[in-house]
Specification:
Number of helices: 9
Helix content: over 70%
Largest sheet: none
Shape: globular
Number of strands: 0
Strand content: under 5%
Distance between the termini: 19 Å
Oligomer: single chain
Structural class: mainly alpha
Order of helices and strands: HHHHHHHHH
C-alpha cells in the first residue's frame, strides 16, 4: 500500500469523525491505542530511559481514563527540557523509540483529546509503515497496514454510531504480531 496516497484523506476523515466523539470516547481511544504501543519492543524501558519514570501499565491506563495525567506531563516536560540537540553527546533516537515516546506523549497529553486520539491512530499507521519499509517481509506488513486502515474506518463508524468500543481491540489484533527491531 502506498500510504502517502491515502494518509491525507484518512487524516481528514479521522479529524472530521473524531470531532463528533464524546470525551469518554476520545479517552477510550487513547487508552485502546496505547495498548498497541505496549506491544513494541521494550516500551517500559524506553519510557524509563528517556522520560525517567517507572510506569505501571494498568495504572497508566487508569490514569488516562480518569484524566489524572499531571505526573506524566511533568515528567515529559522535565525530560524535554533536558534534551540538547546541539550537545556533543546527543544521540538520535531509533525510530521505534520515537514511536513509543510519541505515543506516550500523545496518550498523556491534557491539551486536546481529539488531537491526541488522531495522532495515536496515525502513529499506529506510521509504525506499521515503518515495519513494511524496513522488514524482510514487507508483504506481511503491507497487509497489516491495509487491515489497520480498514479497522480504523470501522472504529470511526462505531464512534459515529455511539457504540461501545472494546478496549482490548489492539491487544487482540496484534498480540501475535512479531514486533522486533528492524
Amino acid at each position: 500500500m502506498d500510504i502517502v496516497k491515502h494518509i491525507t484523506t484518512h487524516t481528514e476523515r479521522l479529524r472530521a469523525d473524531l470531532a463528533q466523539a464524546s470525551s469518554e470516547q476520545l479517552q477510550g481511544i487513547r487508552t485502546m491505542t496505547l495498548r498497541f504501543f505496549f506491544l513494541l519492543p521494550d516500551f517500559e524501558g524506553i519510557v524509563r530511559q528517556y522520560i525517567n519514570i517507572e510506569i505501571n501499565r494498568e495504572q497508566l491506563l487508569a490514569d488516562i481514563d480518569s484524566d489524572t495525567l499531571e505526573y506524566y506531563q511533568q515528567a515529559i516536560e522535565v525530560s524535554n527540557a533536558q534534551v540538547d540537540v546541539y550537545a556533543d553527546d546527543y544521540e538520535e533516537l531509533e525510530q521505534l523509540e520515537l514511536f513509543v515516546l510519541n505515543a506516550f506523549e500523545y496518550a498523556t497529553t491534557g491539551s486536546n483529546p481529539m488531537d491526541a486520539a488522531v495522532n495515536l491512530l496515525l502513529e499506529i499507521i506510521d509504525t506499521l509503515d515503518y515495519y513494511e519499509n524496513f522488514s524482510e517481509n514487507p508483504e506481511y506488513w503491507n497487509k497489516l497496514l491495509e487491515e489497520e486502515i480498514a479497522f480504523q474506518n470501522e472504529l470511526l463508524e462505531q464512534v459515529k454510531a455511539n457504540e461501545r468500543i472494546p478496549m482490548d481491540s489492539y491487544d487482540q489484533r496484534y498480540r501475535k504480531v512479531p514486533f522486533t527491531s528492524c
